[in-house]
Amino acid sequence: MANVAVLGAGSWGTALSVVLADNYHDVRLWTHRKDQAQQINETHHNEKYLQEVSLPSNIVAYNDMEAALQDVTAVVVVVPTKAIREVCQQMKSVLSHKVTIIHATKGIDPDSLKRVSEMMEEELPDDIYEDIVVLSGPSHAEEVGLRQPTTVTVSSHTMKEAEIAQDLFINEHFRVYTNPDVVGVELGGALKNIIALGAGISDGLGYGDNAKSALITRGLAEIARLGTSMGANPLTFAGLTGVGDLIVTCTSQHSRNWRAGNMLGKGYDLHDVLEHMGMVVEGVRTTNAAYKLSQSQQIEMPITQGIEQLLFHGAAPKEVVDQLMTRGRRHEMEDLANILGDQYSS
Ligand SMILES: NC(=O)C1=CN([C@@H]2O[C@H](COP(=O)(O)OP(=O)(O)OC[C@H]3O[C@@H](n4cnc5c(N)ncnc54)[C@H](OP(=O)(O)O)[C@@H]3O)[C@@H](O)[C@H]2O)C=CC1
Ligand SMILES: O=C(CO)COP(=O)(O)O
Q1: Which ligand has its closest atom nearest to the C-alpha of 188?
Q2: Closest residue (by CA) to atom 36 of ligand 1?
Q3: Which atom of ligand 2 has the smallest separation from the CA of 192?
Q4: Numbers of helices and strands, H then E, in the chain
Q5: Is 173 part of any known ligand binding site?
Q6: Residue 343 banded pLDDT, cuts 50, 70, 90
Q7: CB proximity list for 211: less than 8 A, separation 6 or greater
């Protein structure tokens, strides 16, 4: 059994700690809030996130990162995308031995346009890890915390590191696959949040299942279009971290992105929506990142473009839907063949 640090005591860090604790690892759940660490250790509940889940005694909360990282063999980073660089800098200042590093964050940085593992590689010295492992897939913390059946994928350039992560997490409730396509796994998990905002907006406007299915399907096409242009394998988007995560995030009321979109569709203002959520809604910043990438790579992403207009330029939800529905005519097979490559062209 291993000593594992989980950096980030939000919903997902807490749920992943439960999986690791169920596998008999000693889990150090690090939080940047001293009062939260104390509260978790006293009550064995995380009162702010995932309150209903009772935490096993082999999860101990820490506020001191140096103490949390002492003698660990693996570190799981689960903070919002915007905190990744800061947390890596803190890690770098106190970690001197080699560990397996896994991240479970889903986003793209709108300033540097980097994926999370790329930002981590920029911030961390390469002598403290072999490779960064990405953990992604359809996995709402609320269900994982209740030990409901869940499947995820771990990905790294070296299979050995992905398999170490697979061994740490896999159990009878939490099935872990491996996939070597880091770019595809990471982009699928980040970009689906944009489409989930769209699905929530559609539901908030009172549109039905036809509209949502259209968003999921055409959303997948634009995710795969940008993804393959950035080096992803198109097959990855047919897997758990592609269509799998897209389905769960667009259809589950656990999804923060869906819920935020739903309020936007009902006419609430973005600032008020984010205040109300009180948890990270990654799709907002990632929409801006993906929009900028689509512009620089000249990739057509009409749904992302519409959501960018709605979030940041005052477009009304109904106006965005009207624009999407009245675009020029398209040939579906040509679109799909373009994503898959020449061998599929008719
Ligand atoms: N929730 C889920 O079901 C899933 C989430 N994810 C991904 O996991 C990532 C984290 O999400 P989630 O846990 O749900 O988010 P939450 O909003 O539930 O929690 C975020 C946590 O990160 C902490 N945090 C924020 N900024 C910093 C910082 N600078 N330094 C240290 N800690 C910080 C927050 O602290 P504070 O309380 O002080 O704000 C909070 O504890 C996201 O990228 C999300 O997309 C992936 C799969 C499932
Ligand atoms: O990534 C998730 C499920 O796989 C969580 O999505 P939300 O951030 O929208 O809740």
Answers
A1: 2
A2: 10
A3: 1
A4: 16, 8
A5: no
A6: low
A7: 202, 321
Report how far residue 296's alpha carbon sits from residue 110's, in angstroms, rounded to the nearest whole number. Answer: 13
Q: Is the CB of 103 under 6 A from ligand 1?
A: no
Assess whether the C-beta atom of 60 lies below 6 angstroms from ligand 1: no
Query: CA dist 21 to 18, 31, 90, 176, 245, Å?
Result: 5, 17, 24, 16, 24
Q: Is 136 annotated as a binding residue?
A: no
Q: Write down all domains in the chain, each with its CATH number in brackets.
A: 3-178 (3.40.50.720), 182-344 (1.10.1040.10)
Q: What is the pLDDT of residue 174?
A: 98
Asked whether residue 345 carries a pLDDT value surpassing 80, the answer given is no
Spatial separation of the C-alpha atoms in residues 327 and 145, rounded to whole Å: 43
State if residue 104 touches ligand 2 by the CB under 6 angstroms criterion.
no
Q: Is 257 in the pocket of ligand 2 (CB under 6 A)?
A: yes
* Residues whose CB is less than 8 angstroms from the CB of residue 135 and which lie 6 or more positions away in sequence, other chains included: 16, 76, 102, 103, 104, 152, 153, 154, 165, 169, 176
Q: Is residue 33 within 8 Å of residue 8, measured between CB atoms?
A: no
10-26 pLDDT, tens digit each:
999 999 999 999 999 99
Q: Which residues are designated catalytic? A: 192
E strand or H helix at 62:
strand 59-62
- Centroid of ligand 2 to alpha carbon of 257 (angstroms): 7
Q: H-helix or E-strand containing 167? A: helix 159-169
Can you list the positions of beta strands (E) in the chain? 3-7, 26-30, 59-62, 74-77, 99-103, 129-136, 150-155, 174-178
- Taking CA atoms only, the protein residue closest to ligand 1 atom 35 is 10
Residue with tokens 């869906």: 258
Over residues 327-339, the pLDDT tens digits come to 999 999 988 888 8
137 is in an annotated binding site: yes
Percent of the chain predicted with pLDDT > 90 = 96
